Amino acid sequence: MRSIAKYDAETSSKHQSSGSSSHTSDPDLVDDPHELISTDLVYLDSGITYSKNDEPMCVEVEELLGTSPVLRPCTLVWRDVSVHIKLKDGKLKRLVNNVSGIAKPGTLVALMGPSGAGKTTLMTALAHRNPDDTIVDGDIIMNGLPVSDFMHKESGYMHQDELFVENLTVMEHLTIMARLRMDRRTTPLARRRRVNQLMRQLSLYGAKNTRIGGLDGLKTLSGGERKRLAFATELLTDPGLLFCDEPTTGLDSSSAQKLMTLLRASAVQGKTVICTIHQPSSELMALFDKLLLLAEGRIAFAGDASGALSFFESLGYNCPMTYNPTDFFIKVLALTPGSEGASRQAIKSVCDRFAVSDAAKELDMEIQLEFHLMDNEDEESKRLKCSNFQPPGLHTKIAWLVYRYMLIILRDPQVQFFRIIQKLVIALTAGLCFIGTARLTQSGIQDVQGALFIIIAENTFAPMYSVLYMFPEEFPMLHRELKAGLYSTPVYYVARMLALFPGLVVEPTLFTLVMYWVAGLRGTLYAFGFTIFLSILVLNVAIACGSFFSCAFGSMPVAIAYLVPFDYSLMVTSGLFIKLSSIPKYISWIRHLSWLMYSNEAMSILQWDGVQNITCAEDSDSPCLSTGEEVLTVYDFHLSQFWSDVVALVVLYLAFHLLALLALKYRTRRK
Ligand SMILES: Nc1ncnc2c1ncn2[C@@H]1O[C@H](COP(=O)(O)OP(=O)(O)OP(=O)(O)O)[C@@H](O)[C@H]1O
């Protein structure tokens, strides 16, 4: 029997940072996948068992997952774990009740039970990924250390419903994930090799340029391929511990078998794999080493998968020959509609009987022994068992997230093209209405002010509303990636905004350029240049404000409900519709939030500063405004306010973004 030993931290870091750099061939050019992985082959003499059965299994595993050893064997032990959730009325609801167990390297553990038994709740608690509104009591220890944030780098977690950025291809997704997940010291070549290796091992290489999802009629991944891609994503860092939440749900029997064989192979390779699963076939069940049956949040059975039948038989529950044993266990442990009381009694009786059974005593002794060994282990050796993983730097995370979001934007070049065309058409249409009217006459004053307001309004309302959908749409993936410790909320927010930024400069520039030129506004470079700058600033403030509403209210309809009255008040106090000095005191404070007012004043100053020759109609009795300063006075604008307006716009920009970030942090923390 072959065995591999612990792959100590020093060796692993050397292996990651330099070992792979000795290979000079491009992995993309290598046809035989084993050529890629054979260089990782390390067999040592002691440590965990390589195969639970025999030699041929090794060959099978090598075919499936390569020969690369597990970096660190992981033993997870949990004792008297209870999980409560805080309900809205402040009360606590117990979802998991005093559950204990152990998962050792090289084992595949099945966590089974009827729907609602608490499998996912227990698994998220063990993986230290439980929602913030849950309270976990009891001891959960991984390699001697109480679980904490380090679980993000030590373990992989495959969710029941896999979430991807659908527009990316398999290769793009894995490349980006490799940059976000893998140790910062890993060389680019080693990262590329790992991605290629996983795609080959998980039969995704042929689909490497296929988009993950999308509705535009292009070829996308099948359900089985999506699951394998989720699995590949978790394997990027080669974690010693894998949690899989119902990995076979939604797959046909052949795809389910393939995926479970991969999980089995991971366990044989030395990983600890804990997997919730719904009524697997006997063939799939045979792949598991251990079985943990949960019912109503309690343990109904824990031990060797083969021992479950005899335990149930000892209670008088005899599985008929024609029945799949796992179906039988679930039938015994499920609540029967109409007779819930009797079912609960029966479940309680099974759980109580298990608690005093030999299997429970054996498990208890095993757990006590692990805790005893851990208690006696010195801190230094515990520390050595922990990885010296160094996460990617902030700038790397931001850069790769920006790349990801830019890919999403660029993936639909037609949409971007039509957006630009739409802007140009609106600018041209609006500009044509003003053509020849923006003259230095009494009627021209209103036309110039009208053209300026169109520039401000076009750069405010449509962009502000268009951003409302963005954050709610991305909340699920953001929440999941935050829980996995891939990045922090500020990193996500900054990257999201940076990816939008080129569009936030190009769109207002194009619109203002066309509108300004067609409407024939003031023809000095200073006025023209600053108007473009101000329109970019206005659009960015509007996006910041929209982002704040989007993050604060979490759903588009609610955000719109609050934003509409807010934007009306900003518009009314912009200075165009009502003289600023005549706004009632109790509402006039709103104008200090109105970037429409600041930009209107600043753009008006650019048009009217130094103008002395506005003509008056000879045959009119109405008062005549002959200088630019008089025009500004009519609107309650002041020449001296120009730079204050620019500063106010910048302050609003920063303030809205800060508020948006705080709202997003609050929203992601509450989940
Ligand atoms: N946020 C919550 N608030 C209230 N109850 C919850 C919450 N989350 C889970 N529960 C309840 O906790 C119980 C266990 O849920 P959990 O998702 O862990 O079950 P499960 O065994 O994984 O079920 P399934 O197999 O259907 O996924 C269920 O009764 C569920 O309704």
UniProtKB/TrEMBL annotation:
Domain ABC transporter: 76-321
Start-end of Basic and acidic residues biased regions: 1-13
Low complexity bias locations: 14-24
Location(s), subcellular: Membrane
Entry membrane topology: Multi-pass membrane protein
GO cellular component: cytoplasmic vesicle membrane; plasma membrane
Keywords annotated in UniProt: ATP-binding, Membrane, Nucleotide-binding, Transmembrane, Transmembrane helix, Transport
Region (Disordered): 1-31
GO molecular function, one term: ATP hydrolysis activity
Major site of localization recorded for this protein: membrane
Transmembrane segments: 420-438, 450-471, 491-518, 525-549, 642-664
Domain of life: Eukaryota
PANTHER family documented for this protein: ABC TRANSPORTER G FAMILY MEMBER 28 (PTHR48041), PROTEIN SCARLET (PTHR48041:SF139)
Family, per entry: Belongs to the ABC transporter superfamily. ABCG family. Eye pigment precursor importer (TC 3.A.1.204) subfamily.
Protein name in UniProt: Protein scarlet
